[in-house]
């Protein structure tokens, strides 16, 4: 109980520094976010990065609101083990977060973790530096009016022709994502909390509008929902239980439904039990995920273009000459449009 109370008290303290973010920044929350990452990736059919983004030529990646850096670490593993790129330029992975509390204790070579508030412009050394900027699950962090500034700041990190990939939960999913009365009740408390803090219930709408106000092209959206993967049922129940346990007592206090965090923490176990009973009776919630991708306008450097992209920039009848490495052997080829 003491541990639980100190956790919720830490969250409430953050209010005093005028931060809306409703979650703790302790080891328990890091573990919850890491487990949530695994489920979110599975929900997205196993894609760490939207499949519409070409992997060829990706050398520098920024993950904003990186938290424990788990997405960045997993994507770096995927990229560096799968790339067939023959260039020798080094990979660079940067995680940004407003707080350093949950950063990895040691950054591996090629990684940097940097404290920065994404609602303010990034320092000059990071501008136009990245091939991909990834951001995920910041709907409980960015108030409605901040989306345009955040989109502008994130796009400024990209090289011309680079991609932004932004993923959020879809609270306004057309699916019944909380299919029992107790889950519906918790979802409604969470939504009330978001509204009271001026956070959007439809983050994808805000994000799309904010991206479209900038020089971007090739906007693609993908919807995912775990209902389509019945083998994720138990994991989805565990995820929602952990998420509501982290959020609801704090929301009760912030909404004035409980006067003190002690009262909210004392009330929580009986509500948590009702949720567990619903799961034992076979209720399966869903994790609804939506991702949006956009490409920053402008041409990439020639050596970063894939064969397909090179083909697109050639004038009719133009020639393309290249050396393609295949293991130890180099093949020269040329072709004409
Ligand atoms: C729900 S966590 C998401 C973590 C991670 N992106 C993921 O998907 O696992 C939100 C993170 O945003 C961070 N954050 C809050 N406000 C921020 C800001 N203005 N700029 C950068 N990061 C912020 C919080 O510290 C927290 O680590």
What are the main properties of this structure?
337 residues, alpha/beta, Rossmann fold, 2 domains, seven-stranded mixed sheet, 9 helices, 9 strands, elongated, binds S-adenosylmethionine, Methyltransferase domain-containing protein
Write up what this structure looks like.
The chain is an alpha/beta fold. It folds into two domains: 214 residues, 3-Layer(aba) Sandwich (Rossmann fold); 32 residues, no CATH class. The chain is 39% helix and 21% strand. It is built from nine helices and nine strands. It has a seven-stranded mixed sheet with strand order 3-2-1-4-5-7-6, with helices on both faces. The chain is elongated and about 70 Å long. About 2% of the residues have low confidence. Bound molecules: S-adenosylmethionine (SAM). S-adenosylmethionine binds next to helix 2. The site of S-adenosylmethionine (SAM) has 18 residues, from helix 2.
Produce the secondary structure layout:
Blueprint: H1 2-16, H2 27-43, E1 60-64, H3 70-82, E2 92-97, E3 111-115, E4 130-136, H4 147-157, E5 158-169, H5 181-196, H6 203-212, E6 216-225, H7 233-254, H8 261-280, E7 288-296, H9 307-313, E8 319-326, E9 329-336
Parallel strand pairs: 1-2, 1-4, 2-3, 4-5
Antiparallel strand pairs: 5-7, 6-7, 8-9
Helix pairs in contact: 2-7, 4-6, 5-7, 7-8
